[in-house]
Design a protein that fits this description.
This protein has about 475 residues and is an alpha/beta fold. The protein is about 45% helix and about 15% strand. It has 3 domains: about 1-90, no CATH class; about 100-105 and about 370-479, Aspartate Aminotransferase, domain 1 (Alpha-Beta Complex); about 120-360, Aspartate Aminotransferase, domain 2 (3-Layer(aba) Sandwich). The protein has helices at about 1-25, 30-35, 35-40, 50-70, 75-90, 120-130, 150-160, 170-180, 200-210, 225-230, 255-265, 290-295, 320-330, 330-335, 340-350, 355-360, 365-370, 375-390, 435-440, 465-479; strands at about 100, 105, 160-165, 185-190, 195, 200, 210-215, 235-240, 270-275, 300-305, 315-320, 395-410, 415-425, 445-450, 450, 455-460. Strands 3-11-10-9-8-4-7 form a 7-stranded mixed β-sheet, with helices on both faces. Helix 4 (about 50-70) crosses helix 5 (about 75-90). The radius of gyration is 29 Å and the shape is globular. The N and C termini lie far apart (about 60 Å). The chain binds pyridoxal-5'-phosphate. Pyridoxal-5'-phosphate binds near residues 196, 241, 274 and 315. Pyridoxal-5'-phosphate binds next to helix 8 and strand 9.
């Protein structure tokens, strides 16, 4: 009995595997596909090596599918050719491409944070296209320092004695803590044991720098006396970290930077302020800028290049010469070296700050932040009319709706900016907001929106006029 049962199972298995192997044998060969007219035409724009890889990939996918689901019918050549064309076109498109930010989040880390000023883009292109004076002294012809291009500008704009620029602010913090406090204690308030994002946590950074963290105070209140008790001859650094991506409100107390500086000065301990946002202009009352930190006398200040400063990704280290020098000489500084494209864009951005009005106009981050309600309304109405023209009325609902934009990028989390959005949804039983938003993201130039209560919101705060036309064109094709 058992033997028989075993045989019938085996038999069934054999029948299935015969069917599958028949289907597998019916799949076209690579050379047959390469010879098909559609793929030969595709070959005019797609290199042969890519075509062969794509064909092998598509055939392998079918082999696996047929083995996993024996009841599935074998594809015909036309199906496979179509898949090869789609896959090849997908592979030929650049992965990192322009996106349209209709989210209203000015500094959207996922969308590349700060949009550069035209002046910064020009400078970057010039340096990218040719050789440049990156590390050369023109008078002597000898090797110079790449830091020279931004050091004096940073000092001029902030009042700092010295400056050093690295790849990003996380790197700047790591480098500064390592250079100033390795093997010693770093005093930090419990209200500032923050995670900046992407797993960048202050306590981990201190530990990775080879320093020992000494926590003082509580989550909501830390007093000067807490710092006084914690500092000793083992202290290498008093660290202040701006809680830039959250706010503690209510029963709170923090120590003014000036008081920490006075304590540090009296004990010969440097005080570092991780300012984060890199704001050079005062945009919000009561929110401190890099200049305020310099004025307060911080030994070292670290700040990001691509947050409120509105420049390229970079980490700015500013402060007193006697502390910046050991930072610049530390071996880690070389590992975090800033590149020439960044320096070009950063120098051009900083130059705009010599004139406040010019900076507010030319730097998109600042321009979007300051955008007036009449201007936003004008853009919203233009987008509304553009969408109204291309969307069939019976399938979609469209309206203008007041809402709030965000600064994002871990800057000024309590600030909400009034805005007017264009709100879109499918008519009852039509497309859901999630589906509309997904189609927009997958457009040739991807469009990113906010989805809220099953409406897709386009926030014009972060859009340029020409992008409004692009959105209307894309929506016509997609929906
Ligand atoms: C954003 C931020 C950082 C990290 O800056 P990146 O330039 O993104 O590396 C560090 N510290 C603070 C306080 C920040 O807000």
């Amino acid at each position: 009995m058992t033997v028989k049962k075993h045989d019938s199972v085996n038999e069934a298995h054999t029948v299935v595997s015969n069917v599958v192997s028949h289907k597998l044998r019916s799949l076209p060969s690579v050379s047959r596909l390469l010879a098909s007219p559609e793929i030969r035409q595709l070959g005019e724009n797609v290199p042969q090596t890519v075509l062969v890889q794509v064909i092998r990939h598509v055939l392998q996918r079918w082999r696996e599918a047929l083995q996993a689901q024996p009841e599935r019918p074998a594809p015909n050549d036309a199906d496979i050719v179509q898949e090869v064309i789609e896959e090849a076109q997908h592979r030929m498109r650049p992965s990192l491409c322009k996106a349209i930010n209709a989210t209203g989040v000015i500094l959207h880390t996922g969308l590349g944070r700060a949009r550069l000023a035209d002046e910064a883009v020009e400078a970057l292109l010039t340096v990218a296209r040719g050789h440049c004076t990156l590390e050369i002294d023109r008078a002597s012809g000898h090797r110079g320092s790449r830091q020279d291009h931004v050091r004096s500008l940073l000092c001029e704009l902030t009042g700092a004695e010295d400056a050093y620029v690295v790849n990003n602010c996380a790197g700047a913090v790591f480098l500064a803590v390592t250079a100033l406090a390795m093997g010693r204690e770093v005093v930090l308030s419990r209200g500032e044991l923050v995670e900046i994002g992407g797993g960048f946590r202050m306590p981990d950074i201190v530990q990775a720098s080879g320093a020992v963290l000494v926590e003082v105070g509580t989550t909501n209140r830390t007093r000067l006396s807490d710092y006084v008790q914690a500092v000793s001859e083992r202290t290498g650094l008093i660290l202040r970290c701006r809680p830039s991506n959250f706010a503690i409100i209510g029963f709170t107390e923090t120590v003014p930077l000036e008081d920490l500086v006075a304590l540090g000065d009296s004990r010969g301990i440097p005080v570092m302020d991780d300012q984060g946002s890199g704001a050079l202009l005062s945009l919000v009352k009561g929110k401190s800028t890099v200049l305020d930190s310099v004025k307060a006398g911080a030994s070292v200040i670290t700040a990001s290049g691509d947050k409120l400063l509105g420049g390229p990704q970079a980490g700015l280290i500013l402060g007193k010469r006697r502390y910046i020098e050991p930072i610049a000489r530390h071996p880690l500084a070389r590992a975090l070296r800033v590149d020439k494209l960044t320096l070009a864009a950063l120098e051009a951005t900083l130059r705009l700050y010599r004139d406040r009005e010019q900076a507010l106009q030319a730097i998109p981050t600042l321009r979007y932040f300051c955008r007036s309600m009449p201007e936003i309304t004008r853009l919203a109405k233009r987008l509304y009319r553009g969408l109204q023209r291309v969307l069939p009325r019976e399938r979609f609902r469209l309206e203008l709706r007041r809402d709030y934009s965000e600064i994002g990028g871990g800057s000024l989390p309590e600030e909400r900016l009034d805005t007017l959005c264009v709100a879109l949804r499918g008519a009852d039983g039509g497309l859901s907001a999630e589906i509309i938003a997904k189609r927009l993201r997958l457009a040739p130039t991807p469009i990113f929106t906010r989805v809220q209560d099953d409406w897709v919101l386009f926030d014009p705060r972060t859009l340029e006029a020409e992008e409004i036309k692009t959105i209307a064109d894309a929506v016509r094709v997609l929906l």
